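A student in our group prepared the protein record below, which I am reviewing. What it holds is a sequence and that sequence's fold in token form. My question to you is simply how this chain folds and whether the tokens agree. Do not assume that whoever made the record got everything right. I have pasted the whole thing underneath without changing anything:
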Amino acid sequence: MNHTSVTAALRAEMAPTGTLRVALNLSNFLLVSQAPPDGEPVGIAPDIGREIARRLGVPVAFVRYPSPGDLAAAAATGVWDVGLIGADPLRASEISFTPAYLEIEASYLVRADSPIRALTDVDRPGVRIAVGDKTAYDMYLRRTLQHATLHRAAGLEASYQLFVDQQLDALAGLKPRLAADQQRLPGSRVLDGRFTAIQQAIGVPIARTAAAAFLLSFVDDIKTGLVARLIASHGVQGVSVAP
């Protein structure tokens, strides 16, 4: 893919203001490692946004959101052009998603004395799960849990505090974050395996069909090398290039 495949019409659809406005979910510390208010964001997601802008031949500007739910909710407002966010069917009415470029495993943290030993023990009557509201794994659990109940908090740290303060049975989260939380709670355990792998994708507002086609080809291209290089250069653990 190169600049010769970018038409004026495509550029106008993808960056109608003349600058590609890339929406970032700042709560995903694996993909956005730094985002100083007075400086440029650092991480895999910002670098992918910069690469899209480079191929379009336009400047880039970042639109920052504290959570994926806030990012998704703004899709219909026209304030961003490309969003780096976990793909989810519940968001598909407003956002067209590419296939995933990167995966992050999600599991549960439980206390040392918890009777929960495996993922199959979690979805049972009476089990209470703390989760960050409107995260991709929250959206997945909303669709799939049949017996356990979700208790939501605004943000990852708040979901950990909810788990601890209310003595809930499990904390749902991305494995790298759960490993960090495990160090804060002596004896706690991260369950083996995964209940899902969050599909990190690129989204555009639903009506931008040419942009969606361009990004489909872009993702196919970056999975052959760029994503792995970014994972390595940023030293990110617990993520992998999507199949």
